[in-house]
């Protein structure tokens, strides 16, 4: 595979116990032509010292420190603004990639001329034990994502030669979904590689663990960011709620319906 240019976007906040493994998973990539831009959001632990130790060893790893705590959207957008790569990839400070993640997914994009892709991933607990796999559909459109977000942030990559730089909406949660929706207004589909390429850590204290809050921010995304009218918002939110309930409480039914892979 020819060398490629990839910018990896990583927000960090009080991630000192986990971000080493995240960075090591990037260093282990079979593709080497990348930069990793880590934006620290005013951590109160020693995250900056941990990150700096890697920066000192490898010039491809870059650290930006925000002047005040601003949230993941601002941190990610700061990294996107600084990015120099053709491809923008996302990896949060508690997640990791398999070594062939970038090579396989960018080849998938280049061979098929796909500007926006995602992939399957495993879910791991706080002891790094795999307890589930999240498969993905072969493609999704804008309306599909409004019903259920099947794009894991740690797997998403978009091509700036096609889109230019596209940024996340400035909301505290669901900003990744907001970005995917922006991209899907500029192209018909995002395409899925149904091969496990990353490990998503499920933490009891993570933002995504608060399902009620995530639901509220999904509603706000419909109404305030996407400016979808009330009736359509209710329609999409009902799909979102039912699918979420089936995935959580009735996985067998969800698999039978194709909601859970």
UniProtKB/TrEMBL annotation:
Q: Which residues form the Glycosyltransferase 2-like domain?
A: 7-129
What species is this protein from?
Answer: Venatoribacter cucullus
Name-wise, this protein is Glycosyltransferase
Q: Which GO terms describe its molecular function?
A: hexosyltransferase activity
In terms of PANTHER family, this protein maps to:
GLYCOSYLTRANSFERASE, UDP-GLCNAC:BETAGAL BETA-1,3-N-ACETYLGLUCOSAMINYLTRANSFERASE-LIKE PROTEIN 1
Which InterPro entries does this UniProt record tie to the protein?
A: Glyco_trans_2-like, Nucleotide-diphossugar_trans
**Family annotation (Pfam families):** Glycos_transf_2
Q: Which domain of life is it from?
A: Bacteria
